[in-house]
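Subject: sequence -> structure tokens, single chain

Hey, anyone have a minute? Need the predicted structure for the following. Not urgent.
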Amino acid sequence: MATFTHGNYEVFYLLYGEEAAPCICFINGLSMRTAHWMPMIENLCGSGFRVLVFDMLGQGSSDKPVLDSDFDDNACMLAGILDSLGIEQAYVSGISYGGVVALKFPILFPEKCRGMIPISTFSEIDGQLF
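Reply:
Had a minute. Here:
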């Protein structure tokens, strides 16, 4: 089982596809887990993409601490996973809560974001949006 250590916790992830292929990362909504992305994983890998999925803390196979993380912390978690895998840039896509993380990711890590695909999400109003 592939895991990444974020703080004191283990975050479960799966990585599919060829190493040289462009990477797209899917970020779960609150009640999701990595397996929900499987139909997209198969199609995208067959179309020449590398696909990364992970369970945020509290989800699926990741640790389930008393949660106090926020959107920024989850974006930092993704950046750490990408760094640990040697992935310099990725497309990020998230649904619902994960969509907000996908919106935050290029604000916090513009050099790591190749593109963004938010799905059925919402946005916080922060200083940059004003």
